[in-house]
């Protein structure tokens, strides 16, 4: 299949959205391509051909990095009390605190940076991400740390194919120097090791220098790099 229609994205954005890459499109007609309002082009290299899809609005929106770590830590020593979010203890106030932190985690997201998306879609997407993490659909654990009764750091962890995957991680800007993020990462490592899993992955953007430095300090290394373009129908 040259273009994979993305059903969830299409429904959520109210657009025809597909995923493909340059090589797959070389034999596809413009009429077929233009059935899609938006195409995600997932590339191993930057596209240098200015004539490629010249009838569309093409934006390089992300250089996606996958950081990975093996030989995870088993022992966690911390003065912080780490809690696993319980949906039965959920309140509107606590959920709003999680939403605010989730927005911080998405500061470099392509859904925030690409102005072609309808206003508010970035925030709606990240609220859904939090909601579906709490429900268990998108995360097996949502670990968090409170300070003075307020959630100020959290991380979501999902086990996929015998590997741990971090979905969201964020720390309030006022407490970013207190080591809460590192503590939550170690909690994820410990949780995985206790389940017999010894690999942890997380995605971020190359433009997010703070996140990249943080993951490197956590002894993670880049294992994948993908250049992502948004190709919009004009």
Write the layout of secondary structure elements.
Elements: E1 4-5, H1 7-13, E2 17-20, H2 22-25, H3 30-33, E3 38-43, E4 56-70, E5 82-84, H4 92-105, H5 110-113, H6 121-135, E6 141-147, E7 150-160, E8 163-171, H7 180-194, E9 199-205, H8 209-217, E10 221-233
Parallel strand pairs: 2-3, 8-9
Antiparallel strand pairs: 1-2, 3-10, 4-9, 4-10, 5-6, 6-7, 7-8
Helix pairs in contact: 4-6
Give a description of the structure:
This protein has 234 residues and is of the alpha+beta class. The protein has two domains: 4-62, no CATH class; 67-226, 3-Layer(aba) Sandwich (Aminopeptidase). 31% of the residues lie in helices and 33% in strands. The protein has helices spanning 7-13, 22-25, 30-33, 92-105, 110-113, 121-135, 180-194, 209-217, and strands spanning 4-5, 17-20, 38-43, 56-70, 82-84, 141-147, 150-160, 163-171, 199-205, 221-233. It has a ten-stranded mixed β-sheet with strand order 1-2-3-10-4-9-8-7-6-5, with helices on both faces.
């Amino acid at each position: 299949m040259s273009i994979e229609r993305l059903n969830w994205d299409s429904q959520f954005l109210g657009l025809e959205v597909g995923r493909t890459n340059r090589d797959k499109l070389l034999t596809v007609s413009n009429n077929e391509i233009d059935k899609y309002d938006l195409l995600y082009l997932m590339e191993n290299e930057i596209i240098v051909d200015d004539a490629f899809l010249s009838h569309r609005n093409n934006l390089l929106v992300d250089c996606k990095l996958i950081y990975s770590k093996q030989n995870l830590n088993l022992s966690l020593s911390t003065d912080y009390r780490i809690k696993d979010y319980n949906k039965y203890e959920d309140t509107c106030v606590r959920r709003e605190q999680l939403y605010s932190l989730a927005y911080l985690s998405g500061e470099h997201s392509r859904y925030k940076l690409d102005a072609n998306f309808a206003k508010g879609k970035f925030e709606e997407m990240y609220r859904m991400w939090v909601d579906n993490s709490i429900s268990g659909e998108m995360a097996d654990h949502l670990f968090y740390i409170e300070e003075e009764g307020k959630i100020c750091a959290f991380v979501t962890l999902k086990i996929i194919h015998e590997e741990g995957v971090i979905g969201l991680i964020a720390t309030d800007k006022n407490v970013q120097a207190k080591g809460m993020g590192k503590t939550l990462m170690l909690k994820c490592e410990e949780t995985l090791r206790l389940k017999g899993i010894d690999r942890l992955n997380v995605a971020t953007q190359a433009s997010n220098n703070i996140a990249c430095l943080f993951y490197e300090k956590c002894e993670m290394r880049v294992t994948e790099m993908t250049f992502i373009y948004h190709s919009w129908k004009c």
